[in-house]
Automatic annotation (TrEMBL), chain A:
It comes from the Bacteria. Coiled coil: none annotated. Belongs to the BsaP family. Its cofactor is iron-sulfur cluster. This is Biotin synthase auxiliary protein. Keywords: Biotin biosynthesis, Iron, Metal-binding. Required for the activity of the biotin synthase BioB. InterPro entries: BsaP_C. Residues 38-61 form the Biotin synthase auxiliary protein C-terminal domain.
TrEMBL record, chain B:
The lineage of its organism: Bacteria, Bacillati, Actinomycetota, Actinomycetes, Pseudonocardiales. Keywords: 2Fe-2S, 4Fe-4S, Biotin biosynthesis, Iron, Iron-sulfur, Metal-binding, S-adenosyl-L-methionine, Transferase. Homodimer. It catalyses: (4R,5S)-dethiobiotin + (sulfur carrier)-SH + 2 reduced [2Fe-2S]-[ferredoxin] + 2 S-adenosyl-L-methionine = (sulfur carrier)-H + biotin + 2 5'-deoxyadenosine + 2 L-methionine + 2 oxidized [2Fe-2S]-[ferredoxin]. Pathway: Cofactor biosynthesis; biotin biosynthesis; biotin from 7,8-diaminononanoate: step 2/2. HAMAP family: BioB. It is an enzyme of class 2 (transferase). It comes from Actinokineospora fastidiosa. The gene is bioB. Residues 60-286 form the Radical SAM core domain. GO terms for biological process: biotin biosynthetic process. Its EC number is 2.8.1.6. The keyword 4Fe-4S applies. This is Biotin synthase.
Length: 67, 340
């Protein structure tokens, strides 16, 4: 699994900056499955994030489905 | 002269009460700097005066706005704060919003009670494709029955493009000067502050409302914050959006610390005293810099407009929480009929 904020493996650690007040204001940017950068669209009430391999997530989705 | 009499003639808040509150004349650069240097123990007094000025010269209404990114990322400019610059290794990928998505975003915004919907693109200036998308988008929004006021923020414009936007019914144009003229070369190197200024003058001359503000916390000094306030006052904008830097990964400002909440409030109040009649809008970064309590203090310290919901690439707090805050503060939301 990969961190949706920095794209590095979750298991590697070093994600202190990825769990901060700033990232609470960030939609996911990297696919948790493959770490590809996603195409993200923020709207006034939500967001969508699309991975070319693993499809689309939207606000309200579980960002870490296997965690 | 007694100490009390001396305070009456020299204290900047005493001067501001007579000059700004009573006569509606904004503070000059030296006076704004004095305000920015007031000690923390005078914050309550400062915010109270800024609120009085807002109430007297702008009234109790709050203008609510939503914004949407029509074209995200891949910008050729190098604005050092921006995650949408194609020149920095940020995680933001390019994206275009389609017309149905734009119409839906406008509906979502109107449903909050907002009277203003700003369509934004990360570009140096609009090309024919972007202007066509804006034209089709506005047409579709109107055909959906949505009467929300439409603003645009599409970068630097030519006169022909200004005229096109007027013809489309765009009533307000946003183009932030971002920071003081003296600090701008440290923030952007691919275009100049003066180019931005020129676009804003064209917008004003064409009859559109002018919206221009900036971002606080990009390494500027207090002197430059004061300089920026009076440069904005010289522009005479209808609206000044105030953003607070959210350090974005991959940008040159990624490691900057967000400014302290009390400093943000001090800037808000100082800008109100420099711009007594201008709409002052809370925009990006307030959630990180001020939190919930600070947002309320800002609304009681000179701010009279707010962006609700999410921003362009960052998330805001839920719109309803801001609407509840305004209700608690007994601040009415400006109605669309007052905007037209």
């Amino acid at each position: 699994m990969f961190c949706v904020h920095c794209g590095n493996p979750v298991a590697e650690g070093g994600h202190t900056g990825c769990d901060s007040p700033r990232t609470a204001l960030e939609p996911p940017r990297f696919c948790a499955e493959c770490a590809r950068r996603m195409v993200v669209q923020v709207t006034p009430v939500g967001w969508t994030a699309r991975c070319s391999r693993h499809g689309e997530l939207s606000s309200g989705a579980d960002l870490h489905p296997t965690a | 002269m007694t100490a009390a009499a001396e305070r009456t003639t020299t204290d900047v808040l005493v001067v501001a009460r007579e000059q700004v509150l009573e006569r509606g004349v904004g503070l000059d650069e030296a006076q704004v700097l004095q305000v920015l240097r007031l000690p923390d123990e005078r914050m309550e007094e400062l915010l109270g005066l800024a609120h009085e000025v807002r109430m007297k010269w702008c009234g109790p209404e709050v203008e609510v706005e939503g914004i949407i990114s029509l074209k995200t990322g891949g910008c050729p400019e190098d604005c050092h704060f921006c995650s949408q610059s194609g020149r920095f290794p940020t995680p933001v990928r390019s994206a275009w919003l389609d017309i149905p998505g734009l119409v839906k975003a406008a509906e979502q915004t109107r449903a909050t009670g907002a009277t203003e919907f700003c369509i934004v693109a990360a570009v140096r200036g609009p090309d024919a494709r972007l202007l066509s998308q804006v034209r089709e988008g506005i047409k579709a929004i109107r055909e959906s029955g949505n009467d929300i006021q439409i603003a645009c923020s599409l970068g630097m414009l030519t006169q022909e493009q200004v005229d096109e936007l007027v013809a489309m019914g765009v009533h307000r144009y946003n183009h932030n000067l971002e920071t003081a003229r003296s600090h701008f070369p440290q923030v952007v190197t691919t275009h100049t502050w003066e180019e931005r200024w020129d676009t804003l003058r064209m917008v004003r001359d064409a009859g559109m409302e002018v919206c221009s503000g900036g971002i606080i916390g990009m390494g500027e000094t207090d002197e430059q914050r004061a300089e920026f306030a009076v440069q904005l006052a010289e522009l005479e904008p209808d609206e000044v959006p105030m953003n607070f830097l959210i350090p974005q990964p991959g940008t040159p400002y990624a490691d900057y610390e967000p400014i302290e909440g009390r400093d943000a409030l001090r800037v808000v109040a100082a800008f109100r005293l420099a711009l007594p009649r201008t709409m002052l809008r809370f925009a990006g970064g307030r959630e990180l810099t001020l939190g919930d309590l600070g947002a309320e203090q800002g609304m009681l310290g000179g701010v009279n407009a707010i962006i609700v919901g999410n921003y362009l690439t960052n998330l805001g707090r839920p719109a309803q929480r801001d609407l509840d805050m305004l209700s608690d503060l007994k601040m009415p939301i400006k109605a669309l009929s007052e905007s037209l």
